[in-house]
Amino acid sequence: MTRANQTIVQDMYVKHQTVMTSVSAAECYVCGRGLQDGHSITAKTLPDGIALFCEMHYSLQ
Predict the structure, then answer these.
(1) From CA 2, how far away is CA 22, in angstroms rounded?
(2) Global pTM?
(3) Which DSSP helix (H) or strand (E) runs through 50?
(4) Which of 20, 6, 10, 55 has the alpha carbon at shortest distance from 34?
(5) pLDDT values of the chain reduced to their tens digit, one per residue, 61 residues
(6) Closest Cα to residue 33, out of 60, 52, 51?
(7) How far apart are CA 39 and CA 32, in angstroms?
(8) SS (H, E, C) 8-23
(9) What whole-number distance in Å separates Cα of residue 8 and Cα of residue 11?
């Protein structure tokens, strides 16, 4: 059995770009409960912006 030599050539272009991100805990806007407490969190668009609510407070809005 003979072995063949193989060569792979690949051109790579790397564009350096800084991406800024931020993160915050997903907590209810009303009571502060969050995913870490075992609650589901839902976002709702309000006139002043987007707010997060737990399952108990989402239905009240």
Answers:
(1) 56
(2) 0.58
(3) strand 49-54
(4) 55
(5) 555 566 677 777 778 888 888 888 899 999 999 988 999 999 999 999 999 999 999 876 5
(6) 52
(7) 10
(8) CCCCCCCCCCCCCCCC
(9) 10
Q: Is there a contact between 27 and 41 (Cβ–Cβ < 8 Å)? A: yes
Dig out the tokens for 26 from the structure: 């997903």
Tokens found for residue 19: 């991406």
The first and second tokens of residue 50, run together, are: 């987007």
First to last CA, the chain: 74
For 57, the enclosing helix (H) or strand (E) is helix 55-58
User: Residue 13 is encoded by which pair of tokens?
Assistant: 């272009």
